[in-house]
Amino acid sequence: MSRLTVGVPRRALAMLAILLVLLIAAPALLGGYGLSVLIVVLYATYVGQAWNIMMGFAGQLSLGHALYAGLGGYVAAGLYFHYGIGPWAGVVAAVAAAVLAGSIVGYLGFRFSLAGVYFALLTIAFAEFTRIGFDNWPWSGGSGGLFLKVERDVVDIANLRGGPVLFYYVILILTAGTFVLCRALLESKLGRYWLAIREDAEAAQAVGVPVLRCKMLAVVISAALTAVAGVWSAFYDNNLFPETAFGISRSVEITLAPIIGGLGTLFGPFVGAVVLTGLGQIFTELRDWLHIAGIKQIFYGLALLIIVMYRPAGIWPWLANRLGLVERKP
Amino acid sequence: MSGARLEIAGLGKNFRGLRAVHDVSFAVPAGAIHALIGPNGAGKTTIFNMIAGVFAPSAGTVMLDGRQIAGLRPDQICDAGVGRTFQIVKPFKGLSVLENVTVGALHRRPRLPDAQAQAEEILKRLGLHDRRHHLAESLTLPDRKRLEVARALATEPKLLLLDEVMAGLRPTEVDVMVAFLRALNAQSGITILLIEHVMRAVMALAAQIVVVSYGEKIADGTPAEISRNQAVLDVYLGEEEVV
């Protein structure tokens, strides 16, 4: 544990601790609206962290991460819906399904040296034809969707049935845990090998990095974490449609927080999620106030454009520098 | 660290009918420094790439201490004890100098603190220690060449393949690199095979020189023999005064 904090400025640790305390206390401090916004922030952070392992750490662009989230959601929700198997068992099957899918996509892409946008196209293709498959699969409700009974008034942790507070704490634990996991990965041999592959795969292989194996581990770990998010969101939303579960818009949404916050950084996905969710809320208000349909999307797009143009490395590296939170060099 | 014997026999490589390398054989005894020279496009880097596993030879064998390594992947060949630098340097640009070398050191030292300590030692020896926290992309070309050598050495090779590490260096810098390689070889007994155009470095370092031209070996001998070899003078050195 102490290894994980080596070189991190004390101020950064203190601020992180304060943030964690605030997040733990949030349900008591915020109303229903505030908590629902914070849930969106944490969900975007969590899936962003998962995607960031592949793109930010290992440099492999996936534009089909909805595949893993969708599979995870459908597997766990389907098991619960049809057989009454709770999500804690269902998540194991969900992760297994996503790992299998990730292995297939990864192996096809990496074994045959598809790189960059070509690999990205492969990931989109798999998400798309899985979507089409689910559209036509009666077990999962087809394009008409799969619905879970809404049970917001109970607190049934075993079956993940309950109100927003329950879901808030689950996603908070997942996000905090993944934050620590990402730090541990980066401070490991595997993490350093990922960075080397991201920078130059040929040079990495020449110094003994088993490139294929490391890339496979990146996609498998990323897919597994993303599947857990899919399970969470299926039980939170209580409904699943192939279009929203596997659609390209979900895949793109997963990528936004880490890109805006800072690719490859630990804190970037959270910062990106806060900024994106904040902007989304502001522009929704603006739309409701001006009564102009579509104005939210226009301003949202413009805001993203401006951020990407002026902070191409993301907001967090710049902000961290501003706050004097850059890692100490011993 | 100690050296390994490299033995290449009948090595050939065709790229879709283009014969890049044909029937090249030579050996580098354990602990020796040999050079591989020849005009541009003669196939020197192709030979290196076959030894390092970037691609498999179309014909022939590559033996490291009697073990066939041709056809293995680059990371497996690194594991077998071959370190290499790239002619067109390939630093991990977005990582610091220390992190670059640490990646190499992780190969034999899987714990990060151990690898970092090893990397620091190597950087001290190559005179890059004061720049260890700089990003690799901020280094000058001579420093990038040194970083290539440092990163390759961090994998603790028994055979070091150096692809034009002197190119672009000033004469004084060449002398520093020559002195470093000679000391490294003397201390650790590491075997070194270098591709080099800087004849000053070749003459100072290599006990034996292999000359290739149009993918074939045309001469093999001591620097003194090579500088008098008529075939070599014809295709490569041109005029006797060069050497």
Describe the structure.
Chain A is mostly helical. Chain A has a single domain, classed as ABC transporter involved in vitamin B12 uptake, BtuC. Chain A has a two-stranded antiparallel sheet with strand order 1-2. The two termini of chain A are 19 Å apart. In chain B, helix 3 packs across helix 4, helix 4 crosses helix 5 and helix 6 packs parallel to helix 7. Chain B starts with 5 loop residues before the first strand and ends in a 6-residue tail after the last helix. Helix content of chain B is 38%, strand content 24%. The mean pLDDT of chain B is 93. Chain B has one domain: P-loop containing nucleotide triphosphate hydrolases (Rossmann fold, 3-Layer(aba) Sandwich). In chain B, helix 6 links the parallel strand 7 and strand 8. Chain B has 243 residues and is of the alpha/beta class. At the A-B interface, helix 7 and helix 8 of A face helix 2, helix 3, helix 4 and helix 5 of B.
Mean pLDDT of chain A: 94
Number of H/I helices of chain A: 14
Please, what is the CATH homologous superfamily of chain B?
P-loop containing nucleotide triphosphate hydrolases
How much of the residues of chain A is beta strand, in percent?
A: under 5%
Strand residues, percent of chain B: 15-25%
Question: The biggest beta sheet of chain A, please?
Answer: 2 strands, antiparallel
Radius of gyration of chain A: 20 Å
CATH architectural designation of chain A = Orthogonal Bundle
The unreliable regions of chain A are: none
Tally of distinct domains of chain B: 1
Indicate the CATH class of chain B: Alpha Beta
The most extensive interface between chains reads: A-B, 22 and 32 residues
CATH architecture of chain B, by name, is 3-Layer(aba) Sandwich
Low-confidence stretches of chain B: none
Q: Structural class from helices and strands of chain A?
A: mainly alpha
CATH class of chain A: Mainly Alpha
* Strand line-up across the major sheet of chain B: 6-7-8-3-9-10
Tell me, briefly, the overall form of chain A: globular
